[in-house]
Design goal:
Number of domains: 1
Distance between the termini: 22 Å
Largest sheet: none
Order of helices and strands: HHHHHHHHHHHHH
Shape: globular
Strand content: under 5%
Number of strands: 0
Length: 241
């Protein structure tokens, strides 16, 4: 399993594409926070709220780009047949690929901790609410973990990396904001709208990003990840037959 994880990590950073994807993610976040209109200097107080609002939408593009070659390249080149000859179960292959891609995403998120240091240095007074900020980072981690699971699952359906990217992007967007958008429809108001909103990722991410760590939100994220990885398992078992 760890061999697969290491392979995914090395494969992503074996060419410039991996570095470019992460650099673009960091540059865009930095520009929005410190340069573009309505940046943090115009707020008048120390906050990373804008970063936590923007980051999910950038991750919607970043993570499908990270995961899109994970299974499709194996299917296309025939190396998945080699993987099946190794003393590894399908579940270990899936977990190895999932963890490898998740580590890449975490590597992209870690440099954003510099934003905390920068804002603390620029702030006059107490600066950031560190408890709320750390809570928001926990929410961002779980959000990234779910998007990574979606990307791995999407890749198990096809041998075309571009199609995997598109499926992952659409599925992530629908799961993140689709239920929230449906809940806003007037004819669904009166009770069902709340449950629809609660089925989406945005509801649970917004709750954690406020610094409120609720076990129901954690259970939701873990359940979605397990469900997606089980679907991936089913796809691989089907291909094996």
């Amino acid at each position: 399993m760890w061999m697969i994880c290491k392979k995914e990590w090395q494969q992503f950073f074996s060419n410039l594409t991996g570095y470019i994807i992460i650099t673009v993610f960091l540059v865009v976040n930095g520009l929005v926070l410190f340069v573009f209109e309505d940046n943090i200097f115009s707020y008048g107080y120390a906050t990373l709220e804008k970063f936590f609002l923007l980051a999910p939408w950038i991750l919607l593009l970043l993570i499908p780009a990270v995961t899109m070659r994970s299974f499709p390249d194996e299917f296309k080149t025939g190396t998945y047949e080699i993987l099946k000859t190794l003393p590894l179960t399908s579940w270990k292959i899936i977990i190895g690929k999932y963890l490898g891609n998740l580590l890449v995403v975490i590597m992209a998120l870690l440099p954003t901790l510099v934003y905390i240091i920068s804002i603390q240095q620029l702030a006059v007074g107490d600066g950031l609410d560190m408890a709320a900020t750390m809570g928001a980072y926990i929410g961002l981690f779980f959000l990234a973990a779910v998007f990574t699971a979606i990307g791995i699952c999407a890749g198990s359906f096809t041998s075309n990396a571009v199609i995997a990217f598109i499926i992952s992007l659409i599925a992530s967007a629908l799961l993140y904001y689709g239920f929230n958008a449906l809940s806003k429809l007037t004819f669904l108001s009166g009770g069902i709208d709340y449950y629809l909103e609660m089925a989406g990722i945005d509801f649970h991410y917004s709750s954690i990003s406020k610094g409120v760590i609720d076990t129901r939100d954690i259970v939701y994220f873990i359940s979605i990840i397990i469900l997606l990885l089980l679907i991936t398992m089913r796809n691989l078992e089907y291909k094996k037959r």
